[in-house]
Design goal:
alpha/beta, 3-stranded parallel β-sheet, about 40% helix, elongated
């Protein structure tokens, strides 16, 4: 749900008509992160056959969402800190700096304060990023939301199942509300989609989930 929260913030802001760019810092190979974020000029390194505009520059005037920021390598943390402080970037192989105005939202599953203590995350970057902190509750803590979300995803994925399927039985709703949901929203989506496919009746039962 982190990216959905970030997107919601973007859509309700004065930047809503500008780009929303999401980057998963943990999914990009370490040797490509700088190019991905800051871009590069043609010929800057072997394989750089054309100019590449980085994700930060792409998000100009809009919102940049950096997911799993705790996985960012230390050398890249320095570059990101400079951008946050100065508002400028420099593509790999370029001589000139580019001014970029972008809102930065960051998310992580890592305890960044502990990562700072262990030397894996820069303290100055943490303070620069952590101006306003949101701690979204786990699905199991969102009383009343589970059945609403289940219904939303049921309607979204209904076409994958039988046309006669109408919804959830009261017992299945109770089962969902009592479940601990260690996998949060992704687990809920998985179970609803599986139930839609597996259900033989008109209503989804607990065993279908």
């Amino acid at each position: 749900g982190k990216e959905l929260i970030a997107l919601s913030i973007h859509e309700r802001s004065a930047r809503s008509d500008k780009p929303f760019v999401a980057v998963n810092c943990g999914a990009i190979p370490e040797n490509l992160i700088q190019s991905e974020l800051f871009g590069h000029e043609k010929g800057a390194f072997t394989g750089a056959h054309k100019q590449k505009v980085g994700q930060i520059e792409t998000a100009s005037q809009g919102t940049l969402f950096l997911d799993e920021i705790g996985d960012l390598p230390l050398d890249m943390q320095v570059n990101l800190l400079r951008f946050l402080q100065e508002g400028v970037i420099q593509r790999i192989g370029a001589n000139e700096e580019i001014q970029v105005d972008v809102r930065v939202l960051a998310a992580t599953n890592v305890d960044l304060e502990k990562a700072v203590e262990q030397g894996r995350f820069r303290e100055d970057l943490l303070y620069r990023l952590n101006v306003l902190q949101l701690n979204p509750p786990a699905l199991r803590e969102r009383e009343g939301d589970i059945s609403l979300l289940a219904q939303f995803f049921f309607e979204r994925f209904l076409s994958e199942g039988r046309a006669k399927l109408k919804g959830f039985s009261q017992k299945s709703i109770l089962a969902m509300e009592q479940h601990n949901w260690p996998g949060n929203v992704r687990e809920l989506i998985n179970r609803v989609r599986r139930a839609i496919v597996m259900c033989d009746g008109r209503l989804i039962k607990p065993e279908d989930l």
